[in-house]
Amino acid sequence: YGDRIMALHLTCAMAWLAVRVLPAANDQACGATKSEVRPTATRKSVAASDTEVVMTQVVQPSQTDEIGVVHGGQVLSWIDIAAGISSKIAARNQTVTASIDTVSFLRPSRRGDIVTVKAMVNRTFRTSMEVGVRVEAECMKTGERRHCCSAFLTFVAIDKSGKAQE
Asked: 161 has which bridge partners?
């Protein structure tokens, strides 16, 4: 099980690196293609690389516990917000969180760190999509960056009545 998680983290790390270097390579690394989001009469396809969302936060004292480590629930909130925006870009419609499939807390983020949350749609299905999220923290004093958390979430596109929509 531990080997699978490590391979998953390495795959995600390589995919995020590919976003910065070669956006087209990232689409293939994450299992998505340029036309992965199915077009409809009113919606055009969206490239996977266009769904990338980068959100930055500074860890405040109110977001940490007594030893200065950010609360896991706060990190989950940031993950859900970034992934939700990414899914809405892909769907060009409202989406809801169907599940948080995997969350791996790897290292702590501390008070004063700059936290970067990166989300991108990895793959779409008929009414749902998988969004991958990577959380990194940077120490403001030293500039050291560390991979703190990875997550995968499933979102469902919905219509005005709240029903799943293709």
From this structure: none
